[in-house]
Amino acid sequence: MVHLVPRDHFVIQTSAPLQTVMERLEAQIESPKTFRSTYDLNHAPYEGSVTQSGCKMSRIPMGRPNASEPYIKGRFETFAGGTVIHLTLTPHPSVLIFFGFWSVFWYGFHLLLLSSGDMDYGSAQDRLVLPLIILVIFWISFWVEVERTRNDLFRIILRRRLTPQQERYLMLNIIRGIILILGVAFSFSSIADYLSQSPASHQVPEIFRPR
After folding, report:
1. Which helix (H) or strand (E) element contains residue 8?
2. DSSP 8-state class, residue 71
3. How many other β-carbons are positioned within 10 Å of the β-carbon of residue 202?
4. CA-to-CA dists, residue 157 to 17, 87, 116, 148, angstroms
5. Which residues have a Cβ under 8 Å from the Cβ of 23 and sit 6 or more positions away?
6. Judging by beta carbons within 10 Å of its beta carbon (0-12, 13-18, 19+), is residue 148 exposed, middle or buried?
7. What is the dihedral of CA 179, 183, 189, 190, to 10 degrees?
8. For 145-172, how does the pLDDT look when each residue is reduced to its tens digit (9 = 90+)?
9. Degrees to nearest 5, angle at CA 183 with 179 and 186
10. How many CA atoms does the CB half-sphere of 173 hold within 13 Å?
11. Which helix (H) or strand (E) holds 86?
12. pTM (global) more than 0.85
């Protein structure tokens, strides 16, 4: 099945009982805070909650917020030989909501300018592609963080590291860097093109002028 929202699902099986799994996760988790200082380094690696049925958690960013950090949902199953943890990693819901509203506003605003004749088709094409560039950068960044989070969860639950896929991780970082550079170059090009236009073209669009 094709998912419009990026998601990663995997299973960790351990011979440890459920109580031990919960204790290992709880040692790395603290309660969520509404406001958290970026300079506060005295905290657990993750925030969320752990119950008998599963867990919900996300990484606490070190310094600046990172929108590409995956949101982790886990479901526990117990059997005679230990515990099975079903884990699903997705973008945080608040990030998806923000990007959705911002995209609707961005496209709606520029399509309104285009339909009213206050913007030519060539200029509109340049601006309408920007959300797509941001989406591609976010998509790749999300999978980079998924690789790191997978390894972290194996370390916490199994007390061992997952064999690192260095080549894949490096390639994702290289692609992310290239697209980020192209996106910045595109933004500066659009700004330079706008500033090079005649002053008359910088007037307030007709649809926003007082009547």
Report:
1. strand 8-14
2. E
3. 9
4. 11, 12, 58, 15
5. none
6. middle
7. 150
8. 888 888 899 999 988 765 555 455 556 6
9. 135
10. 9
11. strand 82-91
12. no
